[in-house]
Design a protein that fits this description.
This protein is mostly helical. The protein has five helices and two strands. It has a two-stranded antiparallel ribbon. α1 packs across α2. It is extended. The two termini are 38 Å apart.
Length: 138
């Protein structure tokens, strides 16, 4: 598929995340040519994304963005979050997260055995919407 037909790849290109030029990507494997998938069919619900406005999509994604926050009341200072952070975005002393450095991999959240690293909506209104929708289905 062409990158322009995949919404998330087009959004990543606009945000300059990753590499989007195929000539700059090395594909490794034990074959001479990239293998073709025989009888591959796109899902029935797939529609061309050429009609989408990707700037709007990026705004929607940013609106609902979730970030890790360390709850100091639950924190036991084990530093697993600090040690697991590949971007070194968490201050060892204060447990403050530098969101300019954070790559949002959520390793800190995944590995905290005390559940001190909580996921919070960056936007207050997005959090309200999420809470209301969760209550509706619980």
């Amino acid at each position: 598929m062409e990158i322009e037909k995949v919404a998330v790849l087009t959004a990543a290109r606009l945000r300059k995340i990753g590499e989007s030029k195929l000539e700059n990507i090395t594909i490794d494997g034990d074959y001479d040519d990239v293998p073709e998938l025989d009888n591959f069919k796109l899902p029935k619900r797939y529609k061309s994304s050429k009609k989408l406005n990707f700037k709007v999509l990026i705004r929607i994604i940013d609106f609902f963005k979730t970030v890790p926050r360390i709850n100091r009341k639950k924190c036991r200072n084990c530093n697993v979050c600090v040690e697991s952070c590949p971007a070194s975005a968490i201050n060892e002393e204060t447990k403050q997260i530098d969101y300019k450095v954070c790559i949002e991999c959520l390793c800190c959240h995944e590995l905290c055995m005390y559940k001190a690293v909580e996921l919070k909506k960056k936007n207050f209104f997005a959090g309200l919407i999420a809470d209301l929708s969760l209550r509706r289905y619980s």
